[in-house]
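Q: We require from you a single protein entry containing the residue sequence and its fold in token form, and nothing else.
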Amino acid sequence: MNKGHLSEYFEGVGVKKLSVVDAEPKSSNQHEIGTTVPIRKFLGTEKKTFDVTYIWIGDEQEAITEQGWATHYNTREGKPRAAEYRFYYPTNSVTEIMSAGDTLFLAIRPDKTILFIVVPADSTIQNQLLWLFGMDEQPQLKFMVQEFSGDDDGKLDFISRFILDEIGIEFEDPNANSLDTIIERFGMEFPKTVEFSQLARLTLPEIEARDGPDLALLTWLNHEEAMFRRLEKRIVASRVEQGFLDGDSVDVDAFIKYSLGVQNRRKSRMGHSFENHLKAIFDAYELRYDSQVKTEKGKKPDFIFPGETEYNNSGFSVDLLTMLAAKSSCKDRWPQILPEAERIDQKHLVTLEPGISTPQTDMMHASKVQLIVPRGIFSSYSNEQQTWLWCLRDFVSLVESRQKSI
């Protein structure tokens, strides 16, 4: 097993655009998808029924998951005609939603279970999964296949694990022992996020923001996320071992409440962690800024450069003001930043979200929102999108040049 690599979680994946026959059995009286020679390397040529997790992820990354099965078989077995292999699936809550034109990812796990993942075509989540699985081409009606066999599939980083979360795969960090040593001081309590962020930077002394803000940001976030998940696993495991009982009965509501609390803590902590490391970068470059400044209509942009005093001074040149919103994930929520800091026409938005769809980035461009992503995530965007994207160093250079003019 290749710890920390995609091959630890998948043997291979097949990707295709669903046809009418694939996705709408009512019109064809079938529940089958034709397979190709490359994907049969993973499915085999003998009739076999697989355990399958069916997953639908929509535009807003709302997900539906259902456990089930599927059978791969030769429809012409025992007949003199050439073999014709099909992947038969039963009707369920996911297959009822999918339609022609959607994208199917058939991901085969090392234990031969399968993830049957359906997403809208040309969506952000489609782009993210293509990037995760190392596929450059857009899905066609025939399966494109990628095999994962070792070091050549690349080591998983923070953003890769972000996408694995979306499809319900829990990452097991290969550096668990060293992480345990770092977090031992916290026992069974979650520290404040700012304290955790600072520890992540202190335990990576070789990473300097001024050597490269994009690399520093992703490295710090990756390390802090690994530390947090390790501590979280210890704390959550202890709570689960205690059980969720109400007298002699299982307290389902208490379990659900606790589970939701775990998910909400993850999301909230990530946003704060993102801002903490951005501040460390701005401080390293000695940039002047204020965070959470109250502007018009009570809006609070994440960062105003050079600060609140200058923003509220009508005599200060608007050309020297810069507004930055920070969202670890954008989804369709980016228009929320448009009313923030009304004095500043051009908005800047930094995110960790890979592969945002072209329609969304086109709307950002038209709305005078400059999207910023760390350089290491650029490859998840199309070549056309990359001509317009900024990296974090681009933004730092802009603010530096403006502050030299003050």
About this structure: The CA atoms of residues 288 and 306 lie 5 Å apart. The mean pLDDT is 90. The longest strand covers residues 63-74.
